[in-house]
Amino acid sequence: MICVIGGGAAGFFAAINAASQGCKVTILEKGNKVLSKVRVSGGGRCNVTNGVTTLQGLLDGYPRGHKELRGPFTRFNNQDTMNWFEDRGVSLKIEKDGRVFPVSDDSGSIIDCLLDEADRLGVEVKLGFAVDSISPSSTGFIIHSKNNTLQASKIIVTTGGGSKPESYNWLQSMGIQIVYPVPSLFTFNIPDSPYLDLMGVSVQDAVVSISGSKIAVQGPLLFTHWGLSGPAVLKCSSVAARMLQESNYSFEVQVDMLPEVSQDTLRTQLRTFSQQQPSKKIETIRLDGISSRLFERLCELSGIPIGLDLGNLSKQATNRLVDSIKATRMNVVGKTTFKEEFVTCGGVSLKEIDFKTMECKKHPGIHFAGEVLDIDGVTGGFNFQAAWTTGFIAGVSACNG
Ligand SMILES: Cc1cc2nc3c(=O)[nH]c(=O)nc-3n(C[C@H](O)[C@H](O)[C@H](O)COP(=O)(O)OP(=O)(O)OC[C@H]3O[C@@H](n4cnc5c(N)ncnc54)[C@H](O)[C@@H]3O)c2cc1C
Asked: Is the C-beta atom of 26 inside 6 A of ligand 1?
């Protein structure tokens, strides 16, 4: 019998794929419910994967794991995920930003599909079974919880992420190397941001950089009442997850709100406006992707009064405005969890794993899948995709190996 430890996305996908190869499979789940994260994922809609169309585009979604996932994605990728769910009656849609959701906009559709499929294939689920160790036996392994033991010929560990290092102790005690876990996918707290009252205002295309590093991420930006959020900030938090944890979440960000226009071009544009329409007011200027409310705030921050005739816009004031638009600096003090999706950077070291089978090199017969591994993606469905891909390979290999 194959035992899958953890009844989340990766655990169910591994169990279903092992059972579909003819193996008897039991899922051991410590909680009293399975698939809890799938339920709350994507704000209750479950962003099940991403619709990106190239392998490179898919790999680019993983600050940790991009190299190792290349092979696995040639066997089961995001298109395979979409086909898998659609073949089982879940209609999916790809939104403009690439995120894939069930047409129902209800994570229940994904959960029901996984539960039905597991049931159809005879996968058994034991709830309230918190595994705390594994020991070898003559026929495979003995799995121990506080009050129970169970025999298994193969094991698939899919216990998920978690930024508490203690939760990996039982794996570490088997000699498995754990990369210190830290949170990823969070928003930035900026208590003295001059934009706090502009909450809800967004910039279509910005570049967010971490001062003193090479990290710079382009994408939509959102002002919130506590600081900054939006895809560019979330991706930045993912790419820089470990560095930001080391800084104790105290660092400077720089924001370019018009990355496609150089400082010189913007300066020239503003000078041209002031020369050609000297009697127009400064607030009538429209810049692509910057709302009028935000533009007015940028003028105020540059010491330019609203109502100023463009003809009176000095060279120095123009330079200050260009600076505010292209290089605003803000001090981040702390982070806020992004409730739509958060994940762990760190976990089982990828050096421990054979990615052809997801088997632990030190412990043949024990496979790993999902977020328990040191793999995590940016927001947009990449995290579930890693769970489906690694779960598929672990399930098929554990049954056939
Ligand atoms: C609020 C939120 C929203 C999210 N939304 C999205 C989204 O829309 N799209 C996306 O791609 N990603 C999303 N994610 C990330 C995604 O949910 C995870 O990456 C994914 O669930 C990982 O699947 P997993 O099976 O590896 O782990 P999990 O889903 O965490 O499952 C692990 C399971 O193992 C059990 N377990 C742990 N230890 C033991 C043990 N010792 N014994 C027995 N059982 C154990 C746990 O109780 C849990 O049920 C979201 C995350 C959060 C927190």
From this structure: no
